[in-house]
What does this fold into?
Amino acid sequence: MMNEEALQACINQHLEHAAMVRVLDDELGTHHGLLWADFVLLTMLEAVGGTAPTSELAYTLSTPPSRLLQRLLPLEKIGLVQRTVDDEGRRNVTLRPQARRRLHEARETAANVCTR
It folds into this structure.
């Protein structure tokens, strides 16, 4: 027998999360040209020193590599990240200096939204 209460709790949690992401997308987009998913990706990349294999970054973000690539392409196009292949054939992502600046500026905006 299905546990309707647990299912409803999961649905409610998803809706609360979606509402928070919508507000974060709006604020970060308006002030910094970033989506919440971009902010999280850049924050995780910065946390590992600014460069990471794409496979490890996808794992950390709990996202399929193909979805990570969809997130990286626009960020690469606007100069926030750079994708490279190392001598051993591993694909890496590197945070560019302008991304560090933008991330630093966006951190306060995100923190303010999260405290509301």
Q: What stands out?
A: The first helix runs from residue 4 to 32. The mean pLDDT is 95. The first strand starts at residue 51 and ends at 53. The chain is about 70% helix and 10% strand.
